[in-house]
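FW: tagging you since you asked about this chain on Friday. Here's the raw sequence from the shared folder, copied in full. Didn't touch anything.
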Amino acid sequence: MSKHRHQRIEQENHRKAFEMYFALGEKRSYRQIAQQLGVSLPTIKLWARSFSWQRRIAERDAEGARRMADRTLQETATDQQRNRKLLNLALSKLARAVLDGSVKMNLSDLDRLIRLQTFLDERRDEKSGRPETVADVLAELETPRLRELIAFLQERSQQVPDGDGE
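HL: got it, structure written out here
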């Protein structure tokens, strides 16, 4: 029989050796595993070849990276959703305050808020990569109170004279 024969069936001791090897992380070495298990280095190398330790490590690392990316995307989506809710709540409260006269606001203030909302929504114009125009964003808003606020501000801005002021 050849010195480089492959083991055919992975036994519990082979799995344990692989798990120990994997757990060593960046500092893993066949020599360490051989010493810890009290077997020869050539035996560990045979097991590693026979049971594809390097391929299995690469698969586990890739799976771990996928899970981490998924978790990061989920956390990012959750954060963005929370930020949008907070912004929508702030816009609704602001709209009520402007309409009842307790807060003075102009179109540039509204423009900044809408651009913030656009940024949080990650809406981008496909050609320029910039946020859509305020008019595009306003056209998509579903909040009747916000539409009422916009109309109120537009009407008010037409009443304010340009130039020297009063």
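FW: The first helix runs from residue 12 to 23.
HL: agreed, and Residues 110 and 160 are 16 Å apart (CA to CA).
FW: great, closing this out.
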